Amino acid sequence: MTRSGEEQELKERLILIESMIAEGRRSHERWGWVYVLWGVANCTAILWTALGHFPYAWPIAMITASVLTAVLAVRKTASRPSTTLGRAVSSIWITLGVSMMLLFPALGISGRIDEYIQISVASAMLGMAYAASAILLRWKAQFACALIWWGSSVFACFGKSTPVAVVYLSAIFFCMIVFGVYGMISDWRARKLEAVNG
Amino acid sequence: MAELPELNPVIHGKLRLALLSLLAGVDEAEFTWLRAKTGSTDGNLGAQLLKLEEAGYVSVEKKFVQRKPQTLYRMTEAGRAALTQYVRALKELLGGAM
User: Fold this and answer.
1) Does pLDDT of B58 surpass 90?
2) d(Cα A101, Cα A187) in Å, to the nearest integer?
3) Residue B70: closest CA among chain A residues belongs to which residue?
4) pLDDT tens-digit profile of A171-195?
Protein backbone atom coordinates (compact mmCIF):
# COMPACT_ATOMS: atom_id res chain seq x y z
CA MET A 1 0.00 0.00 0.00
CA THR A 2 1.28 3.52 -0.78
CA ARG A 3 2.06 6.01 2.01
CA SER A 4 -0.97 8.17 1.16
CA GLY A 5 -3.15 5.05 1.04
CA GLU A 6 -1.96 4.04 4.54
CA GLU A 7 -2.61 7.55 5.85
CA GLN A 8 -6.09 7.49 4.37
CA GLU A 9 -6.82 4.16 6.05
CA LEU A 10 -5.58 5.40 9.42
CA LYS A 11 -7.71 8.54 9.07
CA GLU A 12 -10.72 6.35 8.32
CA ARG A 13 -10.01 4.46 11.56
CA LEU A 14 -10.10 7.72 13.52
CA ILE A 15 -13.37 8.78 11.86
CA LEU A 16 -14.83 5.34 12.62
CA ILE A 17 -13.92 5.69 16.31
CA GLU A 18 -15.48 9.14 16.58
CA SER A 19 -18.69 8.16 14.76
CA MET A 20 -19.18 4.99 16.83
CA ILE A 21 -18.63 6.78 20.14
CA ALA A 22 -21.16 9.44 19.04
CA GLU A 23 -23.59 6.69 18.00
CA GLY A 24 -23.46 5.15 21.46
CA ARG A 25 -24.16 8.47 23.13
CA ARG A 26 -27.11 9.32 20.88
CA SER A 27 -29.68 7.49 22.98
CA HIS A 28 -31.02 10.44 25.00
CA GLU A 29 -32.73 12.41 22.23
CA ARG A 30 -35.99 10.51 21.85
CA TRP A 31 -37.97 11.97 24.73
CA GLY A 32 -40.07 14.71 23.08
CA TRP A 33 -43.27 12.77 23.74
CA VAL A 34 -42.75 13.01 27.53
CA TYR A 35 -42.93 16.82 27.43
CA VAL A 36 -46.10 16.68 25.31
CA LEU A 37 -47.67 14.09 27.62
CA TRP A 38 -46.99 16.13 30.77
CA GLY A 39 -48.05 19.38 29.07
CA VAL A 40 -51.38 17.83 28.15
CA ALA A 41 -51.75 16.32 31.65
CA ASN A 42 -51.10 19.70 33.32
CA CYS A 43 -53.48 21.58 31.00
CA THR A 44 -56.16 18.93 31.53
CA ALA A 45 -55.81 19.15 35.32
CA ILE A 46 -55.91 22.96 35.34
CA LEU A 47 -58.91 23.22 33.04
CA TRP A 48 -60.73 20.35 34.77
CA THR A 49 -60.25 22.03 38.16
CA ALA A 50 -61.17 25.51 36.90
CA LEU A 51 -64.18 24.60 34.77
CA GLY A 52 -65.46 21.42 36.38
CA HIS A 53 -64.55 22.22 40.01
CA PHE A 54 -63.55 18.58 40.35
CA PRO A 55 -61.33 18.07 43.44
CA TYR A 56 -59.60 14.92 42.15
CA ALA A 57 -58.58 16.36 38.77
CA TRP A 58 -54.91 16.84 39.78
CA PRO A 59 -54.36 13.42 41.39
CA ILE A 60 -56.06 11.62 38.48
CA ALA A 61 -54.15 13.57 35.78
CA MET A 62 -50.77 13.24 37.55
CA ILE A 63 -51.10 9.54 38.38
CA THR A 64 -52.27 8.77 34.81
CA ALA A 65 -49.33 10.72 33.33
CA SER A 66 -46.87 9.00 35.71
CA VAL A 67 -48.12 5.51 34.86
CA LEU A 68 -48.10 6.26 31.10
CA THR A 69 -44.56 7.71 31.32
CA ALA A 70 -43.25 4.71 33.26
CA VAL A 71 -44.85 2.12 30.93
CA LEU A 72 -43.81 3.87 27.69
CA ALA A 73 -40.30 4.63 29.01
CA VAL A 74 -39.69 0.98 29.92
CA ARG A 75 -40.87 -0.13 26.47
CA LYS A 76 -38.79 2.48 24.64
CA THR A 77 -35.57 1.95 26.57
CA ALA A 78 -35.72 -1.85 26.75
CA SER A 79 -33.48 -2.41 23.72
CA ARG A 80 -31.29 0.67 24.13
CA PRO A 81 -28.05 0.79 26.11
CA SER A 82 -27.84 3.16 29.04
CA THR A 83 -25.28 5.94 29.06
CA THR A 84 -23.87 8.11 31.82
CA LEU A 85 -25.38 11.17 30.16
CA GLY A 86 -28.77 9.48 29.79
CA ARG A 87 -28.72 8.48 33.45
CA ALA A 88 -27.74 12.01 34.51
CA VAL A 89 -30.61 13.58 32.54
CA SER A 90 -33.21 11.05 33.66
CA SER A 91 -32.12 11.48 37.30
CA ILE A 92 -33.06 15.17 37.06
CA TRP A 93 -36.59 14.39 35.84
CA ILE A 94 -37.20 11.48 38.20
CA THR A 95 -36.14 13.46 41.27
CA LEU A 96 -38.18 16.47 40.08
CA GLY A 97 -41.24 14.24 39.65
CA VAL A 98 -40.87 12.66 43.09
CA SER A 99 -40.30 16.07 44.75
CA MET A 100 -43.40 17.57 43.12
CA MET A 101 -45.54 14.50 43.83
CA LEU A 102 -44.62 14.74 47.51
CA LEU A 103 -44.59 18.51 48.00
CA PHE A 104 -47.79 19.66 46.31
CA PRO A 105 -50.23 17.07 47.70
CA ALA A 106 -48.72 17.66 51.17
CA LEU A 107 -49.12 21.43 50.85
CA GLY A 108 -52.65 20.94 49.49
CA ILE A 109 -53.70 18.66 52.36
CA SER A 110 -52.13 20.89 55.04
CA GLY A 111 -53.68 23.98 53.47
CA ARG A 112 -50.37 25.88 53.70
CA ILE A 113 -50.45 26.95 50.05
CA ASP A 114 -52.17 29.37 47.71
CA GLU A 115 -52.24 29.59 43.91
CA TYR A 116 -49.35 32.11 43.79
CA ILE A 117 -47.01 29.95 45.88
CA GLN A 118 -48.01 26.84 43.94
CA ILE A 119 -47.27 28.43 40.56
CA SER A 120 -44.11 30.14 41.77
CA VAL A 121 -42.61 26.99 43.34
CA ALA A 122 -43.68 24.69 40.47
CA SER A 123 -42.23 27.10 37.88
CA ALA A 124 -38.95 27.49 39.80
CA MET A 125 -38.56 23.71 40.13
CA LEU A 126 -39.31 23.19 36.44
CA GLY A 127 -36.89 26.01 35.52
CA MET A 128 -34.14 24.31 37.51
CA ALA A 129 -34.77 20.92 35.85
CA TYR A 130 -34.95 22.41 32.34
CA ALA A 131 -31.75 24.42 32.87
CA ALA A 132 -29.81 21.47 34.34
CA SER A 133 -30.92 19.22 31.46
CA ALA A 134 -30.12 21.96 28.90
CA ILE A 135 -26.61 22.41 30.30
CA LEU A 136 -25.95 18.65 30.19
CA LEU A 137 -27.33 18.27 26.65
CA ARG A 138 -26.05 21.66 25.42
CA TRP A 139 -29.60 22.35 24.17
CA LYS A 140 -30.28 26.07 23.70
CA ALA A 141 -34.04 25.68 23.08
CA GLN A 142 -34.40 23.89 26.40
CA PHE A 143 -32.46 26.61 28.20
CA ALA A 144 -34.79 29.20 26.67
CA CYS A 145 -37.67 27.23 28.21
CA ALA A 146 -35.88 27.33 31.59
CA LEU A 147 -35.81 31.14 31.33
CA ILE A 148 -39.56 31.17 30.63
CA TRP A 149 -40.21 28.99 33.71
CA TRP A 150 -38.07 31.24 35.92
CA GLY A 151 -39.90 34.29 34.51
CA SER A 152 -43.22 32.67 35.39
CA SER A 153 -41.91 31.91 38.91
CA VAL A 154 -40.90 35.51 39.59
CA PHE A 155 -44.07 36.92 37.98
CA ALA A 156 -46.24 34.74 40.27
CA CYS A 157 -44.71 36.54 43.27
CA PHE A 158 -45.86 39.98 42.07
CA GLY A 159 -48.68 39.59 39.51
CA LYS A 160 -52.44 39.40 39.96
CA SER A 161 -54.43 36.16 39.74
CA THR A 162 -55.54 36.15 36.08
CA PRO A 163 -52.26 37.37 34.49
CA VAL A 164 -50.30 34.91 36.68
CA ALA A 165 -52.51 32.02 35.51
CA VAL A 166 -52.24 33.13 31.87
CA VAL A 167 -48.41 33.33 32.07
CA TYR A 168 -48.24 29.90 33.75
CA LEU A 169 -50.56 28.28 31.18
CA SER A 170 -48.54 29.90 28.37
CA ALA A 171 -45.34 28.51 29.92
CA ILE A 172 -46.88 25.03 30.02
CA PHE A 173 -48.02 25.36 26.41
CA PHE A 174 -44.68 26.59 25.04
CA CYS A 175 -42.21 24.76 27.30
CA MET A 176 -44.00 21.42 27.38
CA ILE A 177 -46.29 20.99 24.37
CA VAL A 178 -44.53 23.15 21.74
CA PHE A 179 -41.04 22.19 22.99
CA GLY A 180 -42.04 18.51 23.06
CA VAL A 181 -43.37 18.61 19.50
CA TYR A 182 -40.18 20.41 18.42
CA GLY A 183 -38.12 17.65 20.09
CA MET A 184 -40.13 14.96 18.31
CA ILE A 185 -39.71 16.70 14.93
CA SER A 186 -35.94 17.12 15.50
CA ASP A 187 -35.66 13.45 16.38
CA TRP A 188 -37.71 12.39 13.35
CA ARG A 189 -35.47 14.53 11.08
CA ALA A 190 -32.29 13.09 12.62
CA ARG A 191 -33.54 9.52 12.11
CA LYS A 192 -34.53 10.29 8.53
CA LEU A 193 -31.08 11.75 7.83
CA GLU A 194 -29.49 8.71 9.48
CA ALA A 195 -31.52 6.39 7.24
CA VAL A 196 -30.51 8.32 4.10
CA ASN A 197 -26.82 8.24 5.07
CA GLY A 198 -27.04 4.53 5.86
CA MET B 1 15.00 9.31 14.95
CA ALA B 2 12.00 8.51 17.21
CA GLU B 3 10.43 5.07 16.71
CA LEU B 4 6.90 5.00 15.35
CA PRO B 5 4.32 3.38 17.67
CA GLU B 6 2.79 0.02 16.73
CA LEU B 7 -0.95 -0.32 16.43
CA ASN B 8 -2.59 -2.92 18.69
CA PRO B 9 -3.58 -5.77 16.29
CA VAL B 10 -6.52 -6.86 18.48
CA ILE B 11 -8.14 -3.44 18.12
CA HIS B 12 -6.99 -2.67 14.59
CA GLY B 13 -9.61 -4.91 12.92
CA LYS B 14 -12.40 -2.62 11.65
CA LEU B 15 -15.28 -4.44 13.30
CA ARG B 16 -13.45 -4.89 16.62
CA LEU B 17 -12.50 -1.19 16.58
CA ALA B 18 -16.13 -0.23 15.88
CA LEU B 19 -17.33 -2.48 18.71
CA LEU B 20 -14.88 -1.08 21.26
CA SER B 21 -15.72 2.48 20.21
CA LEU B 22 -19.45 1.81 20.53
CA LEU B 23 -18.95 0.32 23.98
CA ALA B 24 -16.83 3.33 24.98
CA GLY B 25 -19.92 5.56 24.70
CA VAL B 26 -22.34 3.42 26.74
CA ASP B 27 -22.45 1.66 30.12
CA GLU B 28 -23.37 -1.67 28.58
CA ALA B 29 -24.91 -2.88 25.33
CA GLU B 30 -26.94 -5.82 24.13
CA PHE B 31 -25.69 -8.11 21.39
CA THR B 32 -28.68 -7.17 19.19
CA TRP B 33 -27.95 -3.44 19.56
CA LEU B 34 -24.29 -3.95 18.60
CA ARG B 35 -25.40 -6.02 15.60
CA ALA B 36 -27.81 -3.27 14.47
CA LYS B 37 -25.19 -0.52 14.84
CA THR B 38 -22.42 -2.38 13.03
CA GLY B 39 -24.58 -4.12 10.42
CA SER B 40 -22.64 -7.32 11.05
CA THR B 41 -23.81 -10.93 10.92
CA ASP B 42 -24.39 -12.92 14.13
CA GLY B 43 -21.46 -15.25 13.44
CA ASN B 44 -18.90 -12.58 12.63
CA LEU B 45 -20.03 -10.36 15.49
CA GLY B 46 -19.86 -13.22 17.97
CA ALA B 47 -16.36 -14.17 16.79
CA GLN B 48 -15.02 -10.61 17.04
CA LEU B 49 -16.58 -10.07 20.46
CA LEU B 50 -15.00 -13.32 21.64
CA LYS B 51 -11.57 -12.05 20.53
CA LEU B 52 -12.13 -8.84 22.49
CA GLU B 53 -13.30 -10.86 25.49
CA GLU B 54 -10.22 -13.13 25.32
CA ALA B 55 -7.99 -10.05 25.23
CA GLY B 56 -9.76 -8.80 28.39
CA TYR B 57 -11.16 -5.73 26.64
CA VAL B 58 -14.85 -6.54 27.12
CA SER B 59 -16.79 -8.47 29.74
CA VAL B 60 -19.93 -10.47 29.05
CA GLU B 61 -23.03 -11.03 31.13
CA LYS B 62 -25.77 -13.45 30.10
CA LYS B 63 -29.18 -13.23 31.72
CA PHE B 64 -32.88 -13.75 31.12
CA VAL B 65 -35.26 -10.80 30.86
CA GLN B 66 -38.93 -11.78 30.68
CA ARG B 67 -37.82 -15.33 29.80
CA LYS B 68 -35.79 -14.10 26.83
CA PRO B 69 -32.00 -14.58 26.83
CA GLN B 70 -30.02 -11.36 26.83
CA THR B 71 -26.27 -10.99 26.32
CA LEU B 72 -24.78 -7.76 27.63
CA TYR B 73 -21.31 -6.48 26.80
CA ARG B 74 -19.30 -3.96 28.82
CA MET B 75 -15.96 -2.38 28.12
CA THR B 76 -13.37 -3.18 30.79
CA GLU B 77 -10.77 -0.81 32.19
CA ALA B 78 -8.15 -2.67 30.13
CA GLY B 79 -10.29 -2.12 27.02
CA ARG B 80 -10.62 1.58 27.70
CA ALA B 81 -6.88 1.89 28.27
CA ALA B 82 -6.16 -0.07 25.07
CA LEU B 83 -8.51 2.11 23.00
CA THR B 84 -6.99 5.28 24.44
CA GLN B 85 -3.51 3.97 23.65
CA TYR B 86 -4.64 3.00 20.13
CA VAL B 87 -6.04 6.49 19.43
CA ARG B 88 -2.85 8.05 20.76
CA ALA B 89 -0.74 5.82 18.49
CA LEU B 90 -2.98 6.59 15.49
CA LYS B 91 -2.62 10.32 16.04
CA GLU B 92 1.13 9.97 16.44
CA LEU B 93 1.38 8.01 13.19
CA LEU B 94 -0.74 10.58 11.41
CA GLY B 95 1.15 13.43 13.09
CA GLY B 96 2.32 15.19 9.98
CA ALA B 97 -0.74 14.33 7.90
CA MET B 98 -3.32 15.78 10.30
Assistant:
1) yes
2) 29
3) A79
4) 999 999 999 999 899 888 877 876 7
Interface mutation target, options B8, B19, B21, chain A, most CBs of A under 10 Å = B21
Phi-psi category of residue B66: left, alpha or beta, with phi > 0 → left and psi -120 to 50 → alpha:
left
Mean pLDDT of chain A: 89
Q: Which residues of B touch A7 (CB under 8 A)?
A: 94, 97
Asked if ipTM goes beyond 0.85, one says: no
Residue spans per domain, chain A: 29-197
- pLDDT at residue A162 tops 70: yes
Across the interface, which of A19, A79, A82 has its CB nearest the CB of B26?
Answer: A82
A20–B contact, CB cutoff 8 A: yes
CB contacts, 8 Å: A19 with chain B: 21
Q: Contacts of residue B90 in chain A, CB cutoff 8 Å?
A: 10, 13-14
In this structure, of A165-169, A177-181, B67-71, the range with the lowest mean pLDDT score is: B67-71
Tell me which CATH code domain B9-88 carries: 1.10.10.10
Per-residue model confidence as pLDDT tens digits over A22-60: 776 665 556 889 999 999 999 999 989 888 778 889 999
For residue A86, the chain B residue with the least C-alpha distance is B26
Residue A119 to residue A103: CA distance in whole angstroms? 13
Contact (Cβ atoms closer than 8 angstroms) between residue B92 and residue A12:
no
Contact B22 A10 (CB under 8 A): no
Q: Determine the straight-line distance between the first and last CA of chain A, rounded to whole angstroms.
A: 28
Give residue limits of the domains in chain B: 9-88
The C-alpha atoms of residue A43 and residue A25 are separated, in whole angstroms, by: 33
